[in-house]
Amino acid sequence: MRKSPFAMSGPKEGPPAHVTELPLTMSSAMASATRYHEYLWAFVQPWLGDRVLEVGVGFGQYTRRMIAEGRRVLGCDLDAGHLEALRLSAPSPSLETLRLDLEAPELSRPKCAAFSPDTIVLLNVLEHIQAHEQALAFLREIAAPGGRIVLIVPALQALRNGLDREAGHHRRYSRASMDRALGAAGWEIVTTRYINLPGVPGWLAAGWLSRASRSATELNAPSTNWLLRFYNRFFVGLSRLLDPLSAKVAGLSVLAVARKA
Q1: Model's pTM, two decimal places?
Q2: Which residues are registered as beta bridge partners of 154?
Q3: Cα atoms found within 13 Å of the Cα of residue 24, Cβ hemisphere only
Q4: What pLDDT is stored for residue 254 in this prediction?
Q5: 64 lies in a domain?
Q6: Strand order in the sheet with 253-260
Q7: Residues 6+ apart with CB under 8 A from 147
Q8: Which pLDDT tens digit goes with each residue over 205-261?
Q9: In whole angstroms, what is the distance from residue 159 CA to residue 144 CA?
Q10: Which residue in 48, 73, 197, 225 has the fewest CB atoms around it within 10 Å?
């Protein structure tokens, strides 16, 4: 396993320096939630190979880590603004970018297949795709033989609230529904587990507060951003402690890893 150069302290990630071309799908406070990103990175990093196709680069917080560890990355996003910002913030011969729409991916197939990724990463992306099983099948087809897919998705349909609708989430997943979607697309399950149980009360509170304040943009409501910053500062450590105990029970997210047989 590679050792991350960010193991002791994450990169300094400020607010995004670009304007997205598409509607907001995350809180703007997410750009500076460095402890939270480091927490998720600890789950993802051990599964990465040398050639990573990342779907949904967002603010580039994970892409920059991959490049710093010497990996080649094909960074994909539906939003050209994210891709432009990534090229400016992480200029590297190890980085390629591609506008990819997983609802209609065929135009992107040649470049994705030529890249032949040994790892495909989707962090809080699949829930935005209506035809998610078809998208997973496409990603399996362009993966290298024996390649892996690593996903983090929102967990438990019972937690669905206005923030999900604002973000464009079509669904939340259980471990079982994640396994079914991957299996239907031909992937061989390696592991699925719940993570971030302490994040559940904050998610519910953010949804309730944004409704109570009648915020026009719930994802970027002051209450939502404040709760995310509060969680990032005080609760990430608690999530790390409780994850081994709650992995099969419940959490705010599902982590899934599967292999191309």
Answers
A1: 0.84
A2: 253
A3: 17
A4: 98
A5: yes
A6: 95-99, 72-77, 51-55, 119-123, 148-154, 253-260, 187-195
A7: 49, 117, 118, 119, 120, 259, 260
A8: 877 776 644 554 455 556 566 566 767 777 788 999 999 999 999 999 999 999 998
A9: 35
A10: 225
Distance CA 188, CA 115 (A): 22
In a domain, 103, yes or no: yes
Tokens encoding 181: 């979607």
Q: How far apart are CA 183 and CA 200, in angstroms?
A: 27
Say how many domains are in the chain.
1
Q: Which two tokens stand for residue 221?
A: 């409501």
pLDDT above 50 for 165: yes
The DSSP symbol for 253 reads E
Question: SS3 of 198, please?
Answer: coil
Helix axis angle for 222-234 and 199-212, nearest 10°, is: 160
Please give the backbone phi and psi of residue 238, each rounded to the nearest 5 degrees, phi first: -65, -40
- pLDDT score recorded for residue 229: 75
E strand or H helix at 34: helix 34-44
Mean pLDDT of 4-11: 35
Q: What is the CATH number of the domain that holds 101?
A: 3.40.50.150
Residue pLDDT, tens place only, 104-160: 999 999 999 999 999 999 999 999 999 999 999 999 999 999 999 999 999 999 999
Question: Domain for residue 8, yes or no?
Answer: no
Would residue 133 count as lying in a domain?
Answer: yes
What domain range includes position 226? 28-260
Residues linked to residue 254 through DSSP beta bridges, in sequence order: 153, 194
Query: Closest by alpha carbon to 213, among 205, 227, 223?
Result: 223
Element (H, E) at 75: strand 72-77
